[in-house]
Amino acid sequence: MLRLFGFSAEKAKDAPATLTVGGRTLAITFRRHQKARRFILRLGRDGQSAVVTMPTRAARAEALAFAERSSFWIAGQLVKQKTPHHIAHEAEILFRGELHRIIASGGRRGLVVHDAVARTLAVPGDEAHLARRLTDWLKAEAKRDLTQASGRYATAMATRYRRISLRDQKSRWGSCAADGSLSYSWRLILAPPMVLDYVAAHEVAHLREMNHGPRFWRLVLSHCPEARAAKQWLKRHGHELHRLQVKASPQG
Ligand SMILES: [Zn+2]
Fold first, then answer.
1. Where in the chain is the domain with CATH 3.30.2010.10?
2. Average pLDDT score over residue span 53-82
3. Per-residue pLDDT, 84
4. Which of 129, 191, 228, 232 is the most core-located residue (most Cβ within 10 A)?
5. Ligand 1 center from residue 211 Cα (angstroms)
6. Which three-class secondary structure string do you get for 187-250?
7. 131-245: which CATH number, 3.30.2010.10, 3.40.50.300, 3.30.565.10, 3.30.70.3270?
8. What is the C-alpha separation between 196 and 234, in angstroms, rounded?
9. pTM of structure
């Protein structure tokens, strides 16, 4: 086969497009690939974007028409993506920003085992109590990470907090009361560690500056250079952390 435009055409960028599916606007980007023999559409994990991979010499208009024809399929995938997550054997959940598979390890009662290499969370005991036990464990891990991060930032910013409590509010990731008490959403343990760190840096900085003025942000950024990226992450993905359905122990 004579390939006249092979390399340069493969590298060429096609202008992105948008597609409205079920009231939602998706950003569509096109990627030409030498080995592609047909159009392939992949939906982004954010549920707001899709990539169409296309043969090197296909027309962008054809690729867009393909995406439009796929609307029904996309709508189905979006519904699936938005289905609330449950804690169950073989289900996958985010833990410190990475997907982990939950395993009911059976046997007698024992501790939840986190395998960072295999990316599993093994929960022993009766499977009927798996959701509650894992939720309790996630909250304990959240408390530990948030206590460590708050302590570290309090030392660095030469301040001190009174106490830490965990909550599960949809409207805020953390708060700082006038009496020096900090409270955080336990769901921050599901997010990448830099996000949890940022929220701790933010609330601890309020112990020094009870506002969001320039001095406050200078303080946060000087101790947490990733603050902007973390803020952006929460804006884009924060809602996903609330999709996990949990069963809490009576004491919360
Ligand atoms: Zn604030």
1. 131-245
2. 85
3. 58
4. 191
5. 7
6. HHHHCCHHHHHHHHHHHHHHCCCCCCCHHHHHHHHHHCCCHHHHHHHHHHHHHHHCCEECCCCC
7. 3.30.2010.10
8. 10
9. 0.69
